[in-house]
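User: Hi! I'm working on a homework problem where we have to compare a predicted structure to a textbook description. Could you give me the structure for the chain below?
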Amino acid sequence: MKNNTYLYVFVVYVIFYSCGTKKYIKEIPYKYSSDEYFKSKQEQENKIDSIYSVVNDNSEGLSDDILKIKEKYSIIMGVMPKDIQDYKLYTYIDQWLETPYKKQMLEKNVGVDASYFVQSLYSDIYDQTFSKTPDGIFRSKDIQLFTGRAFLQEGDIIFFRYDKAHPISDVGIYLHNDRIVACTESGLNIYNFNDPYFQLRYVAAGRLKQK
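Assistant: Happy to help. Predicted structure tokens:
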């Protein structure tokens, strides 16, 4: 019995001494009280919310097809998707890109003339009837002409002159960030308006008058 008493005292001493050392205290994970835990958790979440904000990139409730068009042409134009506003314009253009150039023709993937394309585009999208010739569009009473490039907006018509015999020889459509839809020997496509090929031939731009 005496030996058992000594053994009990020894065990209690070892446990007390071991658990009382600073080393042991440092190794115990610090535990929050419930109030401290939730307070700390909320503070952490507030920090995260202040750094990252949830952005609704489809606040307009657009279809998947329109969202793809916005993303595709924002990349091509080098702008933010929110800057792509005229969805009907880009959707219409998208169907015709890379169609070969053929004079006085309008058939997807087969052949297209720029003035025929512009006439069709404005008829389908803006319910506006134009002539099928560049000069006829230029002389339309429904067009407000201007020359300043700083005023260009999505959908504006651009007029070009290729020779003296035809003061208004061709047309194109302005899109965004100096990108235009035009027809060259390479076909209907998106080109850089700053290219000397277009700059040397640029005459004026036109916009539908407000009704």
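For your comparison, note the following. The first strand starts at residue 106 and ends at 107. Helices lie at 2-19, 22-27, 34-51, 64-77, 87-96, 114-126, 134-138, 196-199. Good luck with the assignment!
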